[in-house]
Specification:
Layout lengths: L12 E4 H9 L11 E16 L7 H10 L5 E4 L5 H13 L4 E4 L3 H9 L5 E5 H10 L3 E5 L25 E9 L4 H15 L4 H7 L3 E2 L5 H22 L5
Helix pairs in contact: 1-8, 3-8
Length: about 240
């Protein structure tokens, strides 16, 4: 287990959004998300996009209107119970006061295939996965769960612009070391992460795939980010009353 590895700077782990959510959902985790890791730096993130089958709705307003007119008839996909997709969809349902049924899948590709086929109506998913479907017209992006519109899709409004402020969700990835790693090693690794992200071609490659590479992310900045993510999802889970069956 990485969290229990020797804090010597030779064992690094990738931290991601599900870890922040599981901190509030899972009661018997073998690690403490807020205490067992030394944050090193955020690497990249990509906001979720709310996508629908084009026959379902042309906007978030249309989707909500249809869901209210047909309670329990529409379905949203996720890659499983307790995932970020599941929680953010339940938050949307709570804020919009609609009844949309959860359809859990074992993976994103099958969920997206069923959405294109019209078997599932909506899904929150990361931009890299849905980008080819949206650009190809098989799916329609009706909102992005970010503070600002995306350069790749400037025509798609944010969830706040669509009337649902506070719904912000993204895939994000950063590096952490076991807690107790010496501060000088943490500082050195943080600088190396930043240097790698600013290497020629790295930023362009990440951006072309729908990811936003971190511009600067010191260990302290990443620590604050991780704490904010844990707090945000804890509040969302409390607001919706969400729990794992």
């Amino acid at each position: 287990m990485g969290a229990k590895a020797a804090p010597d700077g030779y064992t690094l782990l990738v931290a991601s959004a599900p870890m922040a959510i599981n901190a509030s959902l899972q009661k018997n985790l073998p690690f403490d998300f807020g205490k067992d890791f030394a944050p090193l730096g955020l690497m990249a993130s990509s906001p979720y996009m709310l996508v629908v089958n084009p026959s379902v709705a042309g906007s978030v307003k249309d989707l909500v209107a249809r869901a209210k007119a047909e309670p329990g008839k529409l379905s949203y996909a996720s890659v499983g119970p307790g995932t970020q997709q599941n929680v953010v969809s339940e938050l949307f349902k709570d804020m919009a006061r609609v009844d949309i049924v959860h359809a859990p899948y074992k993976g994103g590709p099958q969920a997206l295939t069923d959405m294109v086929g019209g078997h599932i109506q909506m899904m929150f998913h990361g931009v890299p996965a849905v980008m080819p479907f949206v650009k190809g017209g098989q799916l329609k992006g009706i909102a992005v769960a970010s503070k600002q519109r995306l350069p790749l899709f400037p025509e798609i409004p944010t969830m706040a612009e669509a009337g649902y402020p506070g719904i912000e969700a993204s895939e994000w990835y950063g590096l952490v070391a076991p807690a107790g790693t010496p501060k000088d090693i943490v500082a050195l690794l943080g600088k190396e992460i930043e240097k790698a992200l600013n290497a020629p071609g790295v930023r362009q490659q990440l951006a072309s795939k729908g990811y936003e590479p971190a511009t600067t992310s010191s260990p302290d900045q990443f620590a604050s980010f991780m704490a904010a993510e844990q707090k945000k999802w804890a509040l969302a889970i409390k607001q919706t009353g969400f729990h794992l069956e």
